Write a sequence for this structure.
């Protein structure tokens, strides 16, 4: 199994959580929306930190590339965190329009980001880190969440 | 013929070339050589060539057709070379990459055949015009437009609507089979046998139906429950493709219906207005607001100062335009059999394009005003 397989799977898990959070808030079911959004934000944060603390440093150490794809991915994590904060604010003030607009933007950004990771960065990581124990640590961290 | 080219070149081709720049970078990790230079050269030359061709066809002026041909060869030749280099140099692999490679080949064949046809019209060359036109059309709609649409769908359908991925067995075989069937279709020029045409046309239509059917099924079983103009536009496109396949199959199986020239117009309306205008508009309504947002947040302002995607084109304006477009397609299809409706259908179709243009211009204007606001705030601080 590839070392990035748990991250692939976790992308799909986050998609599910996104769909639920978006749907409940669009229906005006704010109580369920609060809960679904909290879960989404928590899981995305776990995903970002797992990559930033485990995968990216290992990739950078193995390849010496510190300003390449991992830097771009870190930048996009920052943008997604900002959008999540905007969604949180909109949720707190029960502002469906702002929540929906930020959610729409997050979805496209997140999907483009996942596509780049799954098509480009993860295969590169599998190549250079295949023999390391990064995969086991990633699986453990994501499972614990 | 002038109007068909106005839609195919003025609308579809412009949007598809633009989309390729974005898609090559994101989906297959390729880099087009100096993309701004290529885009800024190809786009205006293509626009001029299209206007010359359309005017030449509309007013029967051979001199305008003659002027258009070298411009098309220059603009699209340059575009094909730049894109093909990016597509063959990328280290990525996968079905979308292959679909894009085949699509760019389809574009090259379409342009060459189109140029030959224009020259044949101007100089009265003795070539089989009708057969070549059919082949030019098959490559333009099938080898280029549909191939690219399918390649892009493998990504954007799951991405925008959170559907399951296309079945791997389908996406792996769709492109190569389409290419093979188009090559076989083109050989009609050498073998005029009706049974040969039948043997190719039916599998080709079955392949189209499979793509449309699978896409509809994926959308029906999607995880995301929000409906928007993009998702409905995509459904309209796929339903039109199924209607096209069924109608064309009827035409192939009962050749006597083909004697009625209205049938070809019916197929043309389904393919151009029903399938491609719908699918492309739907995608632009998603991609234009996203690119606006992406460029605005790159200005360096705090992200909270950047308006989200829904502030770029109002949702009501997109769904309103979608309704008018669907009405226009229904009217156009009805007008094929009820000529009294032709004028009304034409007005509705033109109005739906004008509305779409207004929506897109609105997105550009909002981008500019937000950009100026962000810059002014940055200067202020």
């Amino acid at each position: 199994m590839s070392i990035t397989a748990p991250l692939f799977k976790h992308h799909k898990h986050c998609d599910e959580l996104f769909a639920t959070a978006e749907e409940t808030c669009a229906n005006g079911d704010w109580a369920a929306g609060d809960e679904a959004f909290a879960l989404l934000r928590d899981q995305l944060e776990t995903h970002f930190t797992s990559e930033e603390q485990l995968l990216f440093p290992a990739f950078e150490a193995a390849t010496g590339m510190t300003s390449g794809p991992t830097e771009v991915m870190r930048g996009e994590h920052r943008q997604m965190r900002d959008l999540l904060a905007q969604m949180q604010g909109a949720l707190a003030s029960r502002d469906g329009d702002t929540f929906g607009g930020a959610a729409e933007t997050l979805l496209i950004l997140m999907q483009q980001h996942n596509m780049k990771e799954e098509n480009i960065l993860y295969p590169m990581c599998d190549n250079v880190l295949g023999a390391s124990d990064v995969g086991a640590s990633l699986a453990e961290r994501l499972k614990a969440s | 013929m002038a109007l068909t080219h106005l839609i195919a070149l003025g609308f579809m081709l412009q949007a598809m070339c633009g989309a390729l720049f974005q898609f090559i970078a994101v989906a297959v990790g390729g880099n087009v050589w100096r993309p701004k230079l290529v885009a800024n050269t190809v786009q205006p030359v293509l626009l001029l060539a299209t206007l010359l061709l359309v005017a030449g066809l509309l007013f029967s002026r051979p001199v305008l057709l003659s002027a258009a041909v070298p411009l098309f060869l220059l603009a699209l030749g340059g575009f094909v070379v730049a894109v093909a280099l990016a597509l063959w140099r990328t280290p990525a692999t996968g079905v979308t990459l292959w679909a894009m490679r085949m699509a760019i080949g389809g574009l090259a064949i379409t342009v060459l055949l189109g140029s030959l046809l224009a020259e044949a019209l101007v100089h009265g060359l003795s070539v089989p015009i009708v057969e070549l036109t059919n082949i030019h059309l098959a490559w333009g709609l099938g080898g280029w437009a549909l191939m690219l649409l399918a390649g892009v769908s493998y990504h954007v359908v799951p991405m925008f609507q959170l559907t399951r991925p296309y079945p791997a067995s389908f996406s792996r075989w769709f492109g190569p089979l389409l290419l093979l069937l188009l090559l076989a279709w083109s050989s009609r020029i050498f073998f005029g046998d009706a049974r040969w045409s039948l043997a190719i046309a039916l599998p080709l239509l079955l392949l189209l139906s499979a793509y449309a059917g699978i896409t509809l099924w994926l959308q029906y079983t999607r995880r995301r429950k929000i409906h928007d103009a993009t998702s409905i536009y995509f459904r309209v496109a796929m339903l039109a493709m199924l209607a096209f396949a069924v109608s064309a199959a009827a035409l192939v199986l009962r050749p006597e219906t083909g004697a009625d020239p209205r049938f070809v117009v019916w197929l043309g309306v389904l393919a151009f207005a029903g399938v491609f205008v719908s699918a492309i508009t739907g995608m632009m309504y998603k991609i234009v607001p996203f690119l606006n947002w992406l460029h605005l947040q790159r200005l360096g302002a705090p992200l909270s100062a950047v308006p989200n995607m829904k502030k770029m084109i109002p949702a009501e304006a997109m769904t309103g335009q979608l309704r008018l477009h669907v009405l226009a397609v229904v009217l156009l299809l009805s007008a094929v059999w009820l000529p009294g409706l032709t004028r009304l259908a034409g007005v509705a179709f033109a109005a739906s394009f004008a509305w779409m243009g207004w929506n897109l211009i609105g997105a550009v204007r909002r981008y500019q005003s937000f950009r100026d606001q962000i810059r002014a705030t940055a200067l202020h601080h």
